[in-house]
């Protein structure tokens, strides 16, 4: 698979010099997850996943707690979870997940971002069948063999285990997200370099330099939108 998860995250962090944008996106996602179930990560699986993701992006604890407390306080902000699909240059494909309190605004902004950056929107189902929902958990300080042994002892299956730079990345079924983490915790590992529920392309593509530059502008434009939470794609940016 080799998606270079740590490098991807570092590039995002470098681009997002204004970390308030990252915090705002996580704050919204945490609030929605807490409102849809118990406002307690130990009782709400969806919320726990977001909390774990937020930690890997170094979101401060007070930001996490504030969003959860807001949900506990009975705030009535309503958000719709919407997914858009589309195409970029040279066979590139994108999935755009959003949380919005104004569906018409979000649809117009996403469509405009595609149009202005060499892409075009697709209909529902035009892209996501080429992606697989996947749990991705990364740890440092262990070898692939050691990670495999930890998972075997916990009787947890994984799709793949890959050394990527300084981390070992475990790819598993989405419903095994917490099982994989718990296996690591039982082995004394509590810090994760990656903890994501994501959409992985079944096949990555490599673009020419010009096409990749255009594609990166498209991804940046989408990620800059306030309502966009995640952008998944099938392009291998390399190292």
UniProtKB/TrEMBL annotation:
Matches recorded under InterPro entries: Integrase-like_N, TACO1_YebC-like_2nd/3rd_dom, TACO1_YebC_N, Transcrip_reg_TACO1-like, Transcrip_reg_TACO1-like_dom3, Transcrip_reg_TACO1_YeeN, YebC-like
Similarity remark: Belongs to the TACO1 family. YeeN subfamily.
Protein name: Probable transcriptional regulatory protein J2S74_001122
NCBIfam families associated with the record: PRK00110.1, PRK12378.1, YebC/PmpR family DNA-binding transcriptional regulator
TACO1/YebC-like N-terminal domain sequence ranges: 3-74
Lineage per the UniProt record: Bacteria, Bacillati, Bacillota, Bacilli, Bacillales
One function term, GO molecular function aspect: DNA binding
Provenance organism: Evansella vedderi
Record keywords: Cytoplasm, DNA-binding, Transcription, Transcription regulation
SUPFAM superfamilies: YebC-like (SSF75625)
């Amino acid at each position: 698979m080799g998606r270079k998860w740590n490098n991807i995250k570092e590039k995002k962090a470098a681009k997002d010099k204004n970390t308030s944008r990252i915090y705002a996106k996580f704050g919204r996602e945490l609030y929605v997850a807490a409102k849809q179930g118990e406002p307690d990560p130990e009782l709400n699986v969806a919320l726990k996943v977001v909390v774990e993701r937020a930690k890997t992006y170094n979101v401060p604890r007070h930001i996490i707690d504030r969003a959860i407390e807001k949900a506990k306080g009975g705030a009535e902000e309503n958000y719709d979870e919407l997914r858009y699909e589309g195409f970029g240059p040279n066979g590139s494909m994108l999935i755009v997940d959003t949380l919005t309190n104004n569906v018409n605004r979000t649809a117009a902004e996403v469509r405009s971002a595609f149009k202005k950056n060499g892409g075009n929107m697709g209909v529902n189902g035009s892209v996501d069948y080429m992606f697989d929902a996947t749990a991705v958990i990364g740890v440092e300080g262990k070898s692939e063999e050691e990670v495999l042994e930890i998972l075997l002892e916990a009787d947890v299956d994984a799709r793949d285990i890959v050394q990527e730079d300084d981390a070992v990345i475990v790819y598993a079924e989405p419903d095994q997200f917490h099982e994989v983490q718990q296996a690591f915790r039982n082995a004394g590992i509590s810090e994760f370099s990656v903890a994501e529920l994501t959409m992985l392309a079944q096949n990555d593509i490599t673009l020419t330099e010009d096409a990749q530059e255009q594609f990166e502008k498209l991804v940046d434009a989408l990620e800059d939108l306030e309502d966009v939470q995640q952008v998944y794609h099938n392009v291998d940016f390399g190292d």
